Write the structure tokens for this entry.
Amino acid sequence: MRERDRSRGQKAALYGMLISLGFVFSYVEAMIPVPMPAPGMKLGLANLVGIVGLYTIGVTGVVIISLVRIVLVGFTFGNTFSMIYGLAGGAVSLLAMIGAKKSGWFGTVGVSIFGGVFHNVGQLAVAAFVTRTGGVFIYLPALLAAGVTAGAVIGLLGGVVADRIRPMMGGMKDQ
């Protein structure tokens, strides 16, 4: 087997494992009966896969993994609207995390906090568009607090995981 083909196969297997892990985290999160002060508020466990991916496989890989995971979760556990909210939050979150990481000013915790906060902002923007009212932004303070808190925890865990698995990822990071 050629080295290039083996590397592509390893990358496909890695992407599949990360998508699966994010999918399982989404399922587990849906099963946790945690009372939240705002509709749609979640812990963001699946974002652990995103932050680890951003620091180990690169931007292209994490975009692919996030897109596939959000669509699969939407089809499996949600509906069209939940998928649209997830895609909007995911896209805004990824853009914010990529920008924060590229700036060089933030570590994994800061990057993850940006992701958590901007995920909520993206979803609120879609909610305002769908409902045709800015009234949904009344939830912004609670969602910002949740985004910062969850983002910090996910970033801390993600940094530890990324540091531990990075040495095993030889040659799989996108250029």
Summary: DSSP finds six helices and no strands in the chain. The helical segments are 3-31, 47-56, 59-77, 80-103, 108-131, 140-165. Residues 124 and 137 are 7 Å apart (CA to CA).
